[in-house]
Amino acid sequence: MEDVIVRxxxxxxxxxxxxxxxxxxxxxEKIVTQFxxxxxxxxxxxxxVLNRNLKKCLSQQDSESVERIIRLISIK
Length: 76
Hints:
Layout: H1 2-23, H2 28-59, H3 63-74
């Protein structure tokens, strides 16, 4: 999971950058672009974690855990 931690630290850096940009009242287009980049990075990291956990549950034939994961990601 070291790669996930590295990814999350990068996302954290992007969010800190966003805070500075907003505090400095930077150009709206730049802020929106940075938001999109941070969101995409977080989405990718989530996908990696989800994929690994589902594979682990499926390999262990743990249908109860798979169902819990499906319920969690289905909540809107």
